[in-house]
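Take a record.
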Amino acid sequence: MGLTRFVLKRPVATVMALLCLLVFGISSVFNATLEQMPDTDQPMLIIMASYSGAGPEDIDELVTQPIEDQVGTIEGVKSMSSTSSENRAMIMLEYDYGTDMDDAYNDLSQSLDALSRQLPDDAETSVMEMNNNAGTTMMLSISNPSQEDLYDYVDQTVVPLLEQISSVAEVEAMGGKSEYYKIELQSDEMAQYQVTMSDVSTAMSTANLSYPSGDAVSGKLELSVSTSLEHETIEALKEVPITTSSGKIVYLEDIARVYEAEESRGGISRYNGEDTISISITKQQSSTAMDVSSEVQEVIESLEADDENLNIRIVRDSADSILSSLKDVALTLVLAAVISMIIIFIFFGDYKASLIVGSSIPTSILVSLILMTSAGFSLNIITMSGLVLGVGMMVDNSIVVLESCFRAIETEEDKGLLGYAKASLSGTNIVLQSILGSTVTTCVVFLPLVFLQGMSGQMFGSMGYVIVFCMCASFLSAITIVPLTYMAYKPQERMQAPMSRPMERIQNGYRRIMPGLLKHKAIIMIASVIIVIATYFLASGMETELMTADDTGTVSVSIETRPGLLSENADAMLTQAEEIVKGHPDVESYMLRYNNDSGTITAYLRDDRDMSTDEIVEQWETEMADLDNCTVTVEASSSMSFMSRSRGYEVILNGTDYDELQEVSNRIVAEMTARDDVMNVHSSIENTAPVVTVKVDPVLAAAEGLTASQIGSQVKQMMDGEEVTTLDVDGREVSVMAEYPEDEYRTVSQMKDIILSKPSGGYVALTDVAEIYYKDSPASISKTDKAYEITITADYTGGNVQSAIDSEVISPNLSATIKKGVNSMNRMMQEEFAALYQAIAIAVFLVFVVLSAQFESPKFSFMVMTTIPFSLIGSFGLLQITGVSISMTSILGFLILVGTVVNNGILYVDTVNQYRMTMDLKTSLIEAGATRLRPIMMTSLTTILSMIPMALAIGDSGSTTQGLAIVTIGGLSVGVAVALFILPIYYALMNGDKKRVVLDI
């Protein structure tokens, strides 16, 4: 080949080119973006709607349903789901992949604008895009024993500094207490002076203002004039005048107590059991966790330098887990390269041969890195795993060329530089067609993956490119670097190599076995087909999940408390859960965050823990099952946990009649609870609680000059109070709240004593215009495509009894109006699996096309491709043995297998065709296998053994790509036997004694 000849003639120019690759390759590593996983953007838009004071059922009827009716007809909407809860609703719209989301956003916004007049006056809506990378990037814990107003310091100093960082999208503080000025209204005095809360609110709104009043000239300057009124102290607030309905003036101190108070801000936050203020930081979508981490740490260092008592702990930093994951994959990459070189030494017995093939590895990796960064790909687990896969495959071409060069030098009389140069050139040319065919075959396999849409395309498209880069680079290395270094190093194949004698015995044994096998072709063919069919039955019963979650050593305990549970009772229950977490010896630290009836305890486990993460999860599930007034979910936390399978049983019921659906759900829960084979049975509607409903009579209210909105506003003011103004106190913004005493309107009986003020003057009792009663209400109402939805979950006490529960409990309770639904994760899994299976089918077709073109015969192409279904025996078998489920990564392994397992078949069939020019069919079949036994075993072993570190799931993120490695290892292992023992049978059956005719024109 001209390129090989050029390299052999111009070694210095070649070395300079390699030096450039080294420099640019290293530079590309430092300039690459580091991420945990590739960016994935789901075509989803989220509508957030708020309607203050409304319960879940009112939200569903007044807000959610009108929005669903309006937006459900928008073109391109694939599915719609909603959750209605107290004061708010969330409607998620899923679009088809490929939809222009900017146009979709505009269409949705216009549709909501047209709907605004049909919604309640106080209802507000907003649209936001789905961002899979919007999770917490960093979590901080802040404490300062010497500072009493810590929350105010954090809220007004720390948070603004963090928000100024360009890579930060959102900063949220939780926990701690904040000082505020409390105006405690006295009901008797207010009644005496005929003052309402509205009067107080109006007076306070004008008690602290600055109003522009024109311009004034001073000398040569024109100055702006403003009129201001400021009250910065409690004593000043007491003197605020209030005009009563009769026109009299009273002062605030006449009808209220004014004093400084404290209030909890943002719920409960504790770190290792100590009260703290926690800060969650979310990155911008266009930024990386590495950017956020470095800039946030600079701010922390600056703040701690200003106050030695300030203690800011970094509880969680995504950048650390990213670096740890990439280091694990890099270690796997190095191990794969070392293993490949050891295999070569074992077979050739010459360290120079190992170095020759080993030199092609960094060259191919550097070329791949340059192409990766040029294409805009980040360094993440998926792309780095592509490099690991590439290491095993990229040495295949080099091994075949090197082995051919060893064969070629045997025919050269000159054993000097010229002889090795000729051997390098002729050895490369002999196998050029084979390695080109195998390279192209592997590359075309990934073409469907590159063009895939959906989650799988976004997740693995970059890996497809990386492997194609690796294969192209390895082909160039095999026809340039290997011949050049072979000529330069002059390696000698050692007769005493560790594998020389074993290989000789294996070859002789192969020659003895094959004649017997060729005599029983029909039996072997039928038996092999039966085994393949049995394998597919084995695969049908295996567990499936979208993605295998990585083990980050973090456990998340999600707690949903009963709606309306008093804060002191919720805190006591949270303390019990904390004690369970704190008492575990494998827990290094933990963080509690709780607000609005839900919270999370995140436990960070020790690296040298005695129990696995899954074992700890199971233990805590059992220990926390008896906690009262709450639903507890314990799961291993990871970047892929939202795509991994649930650990227990889950069923979704849907229907159009919510009351009927509730009744059926409660019946199913009762039947499941009575069974011995399940435990921890929970329903998504179990956290119901009685709510107090104030039902306004519109006729009676109108007679008093009141509307339902005015009544609701006054009741809310009396129950919760109202922020009437804010003051600037010593540079701090202090809230001023007007509230009634805590024990004044706390009970339902006290609510019945509420007196409302009428716009026209005078008063009316709340009970004269409204009815007050109890009503059970769910914490939230869920729907999918307008059908109500209830989810029931449980854990198995023994083996998987899902089929028994489905047939004995679920099916008898289903009807024409109550059906079993499919959750979004299962639906996504079905879609992504179907897309990957389609990619595999296209890959098989492309391989057939390439092989047919290479052999100029569809028949030979079909022969080689018989290795594909047989290799699945090893893949499914090893998955079953290791207990690894079928996921997107394991299916990707099948795709890779299509392109790699045929390489041995290509080499074998190509050799048989060459031998048939001078030998009979039987001898050709046997000698081709014996001759190519060593390169087939070498290339297969390097690929298989180099992937063992990945199959062992080294590091926290190793389990994500473990399935891919196991599928490839199992398939290639069986593929070697198929190429050497089954393929000769099929060749003999399909080709007979006909010799191939090649036109010499």
Q: What stands out?
A: The two ends are 21 Å apart (CA to CA). The CA atoms of residues 136 and 282 lie 5 Å apart. The first strand starts at residue 44 and ends at 50.
